Amino acid sequence: MAASGTPASSGGGQAQWDPSQPVFVEEVAGSDRPAAYYLAESRDGLYVPYVVRTPADEGRFPFVFLAYGNGGGGIGWLRQWMRTRPYIMERLLEVGYACGWGRYRTEVDLGFDRGGPLIVDARQGMEVMSRSPLEFEDELAILGHVARHPQVDADRLGHVGVSHAGEMLFKLAYRHSGILRAGVACEPANHEFLGLAMGDVAPVSEQTGIRDFEDMQMRDAARVRARTDLPLARERIAPISLPILVMGRDGDHLQGIFRLSYELLRESGKETEWVSWDHPLHGYIFPTTGQATDQAADQTTSQAGGAAADPDQIQQQAIDGIIDFLDRHLKPAAETGT
Q1: With the C-alpha atoms ordered 266, 285, 2, 303, is the resulting torsion angle positive or negative?
Q2: What is the pTM of this model?
Q3: Which CATH number fits domain 56-332: 3.40.50.1820, 3.40.50.970, 3.40.47.10, 1.10.10.10?
Q4: Of 149, 185, 324, 331, which is most buried by a Cβ count within 10 Å?
């Protein structure tokens, strides 16, 4: 993929931006593979940022989209995560994947449930929509944009999402079947996707009117199943066509949601796998420099530049499993030696 972020010039010397080219390119400390930052046009014409790295300057590669959490932050967020979470990308590059982080608009509480499908009509010669696009639809825009890159194989796109981004994978697979070839949902916060009844366990804030999930205890899959709108959940799972690896975290207060997400996929005949690891870090598959576990620590490590990540044995094994899963679904047998 081209490493030049210099805008093209018109005949009059005025710089022009080519949407197919990166906005800018940065070197990555400790690596010879640079990071190219792009802007993808979302469904309503706003632009969402993402970053791409490729294993080499020539060739076409399967692409793995990396996503974490609720959204917001923009290019500043991407640059910080490039510095503080280098390990997952280096591992993917090493085994022949193009990969990149993406950023998207902030989650809307119950926006997926209440908004319904995005319907587009016309008014006064322009578009009018039934609702604003949601964060998983920004992911769709990024995937569509990256699929046009000459070094990305558009038929081999994967998605690795943690927490709310794990739920976004389920939403994307439900609404837009066929875009992705494989997905990994680590600690997927699927309460909205599954239609989970939470009135007595996730109180609504009097100040904001938004539900508070921070202390919600949903450790047991049977308890979660009893609160789930099973017909709705199965209706949403039915169109999913890609294999999904669901990853839990032993002792997590939402472990029952993670496990039930896997169980319902399996019961619906979907190609799915389950694994759970005992680790103190939420989002353990994205090791951090210094293993930061909260926002304050994250801000501190973001100033450490290219400090090497320090994954522990569990994180290394978990990522080994992710790569094995992706290899089985995104690489031809000739590439994996099977």
Answers
A1: positive
A2: 0.88
A3: 3.40.50.1820
A4: 185
